[in-house]
Write a structure and sequence with these properties.
CATH topology: Maf protein
Helix content: 25-40%
Oligomer: single chain
Number of strands: 7
Strand content: 25-35%
Distance between the termini: 11 Å
Largest sheet: 7 strands, mixed
Number of helices: 8
Shape: globular
Number of domains: 1
Radius of gyration: 17 Å
């Protein structure tokens, strides 16, 4: 199995790679995601392409520092009827996001990009469909009170393998994609590099 470099500080993504037997070292890209996202939104680019572009920017940035290494960049966004929902910066914002998603169907899009020597050599984007239950503001506040800061800021507003599952009436898609890494395709690709 190839050893790769993960261009992300995400403990969740590292854990998914570890659980799937993919050896990796972590080297965060420290990309200014907000300004990159803003310029993509200004160009009228949709959530799916924003996710792919951000994953590519992260992977390419790190791959310029490591000659001939395989770099994995990833990004996840929420798409609510074409509107990009970013991670909350504080608990007030988290509550606003939950109110926006309340009772509605949205998509969680996760993109992965593999780069080598500063250029993308492979990418994949997967999408899961989640339908949130209709909940009162009190229920939403109660849910948020059970979520740690780490989980809140790492996973957007719900942690699907934990408390977050209770928010949804329906979930269609791969759980790893929802957690931020479409691992099945990544694994297939990395294994194919052995040839």
């Amino acid at each position: 199995m190839h050893k790769i470099i993960l261009a992300s500080n995400s403990k969740v993504r590292k854990k998914i790679l570890d659980e799937n037997g993919i050896e990796c070292t972590v080297f965060p890209s420290n990309l200014d995601e907000e300004s990159a996202k803003e310029s993509l939104i200004n160009e009228k680019i949709g959530p799916e392409l924003i996710s792919k572009n951000l994953a590519e920017l992260k992977a390419n940035k790190v791959s310029l520092k490591f000659n001939n290494e395989i770099i994995l960049g990833a990004d996840s966004v929420i798409d609510l009827k074409g509107e990009l929902i970013s991670k909350p910066k504080n608990r007030e914002e988290a509550l606003e996001i939950l109110k926006k998603l309340n009772g509605k169907k949205h998509y969680l899009i996760s993109s992965a990009c593999v780069s080598k020597n500063g250029s993308m050599i492979w990418n994949y984007t997967d999408k899961a469909t989640l339908t949130m239950k209709k909940m009162s503001d009190e229920e939403l506040k109660k849910y948020l009170s059970k979520i740690s800061d780490d989980a809140l800021y790492a996973y957007n507003v719900y942690q699907i393998e934990g408390e977050g599952r209770t928010l949804f009436s329906n979930i269609e898609g791969d759980e790893n994609t929802i957690m931020g890494l479409p691992i099945k395709k990544i694994k297939e690709y990395i294994n194919s590099l052995e040839l």
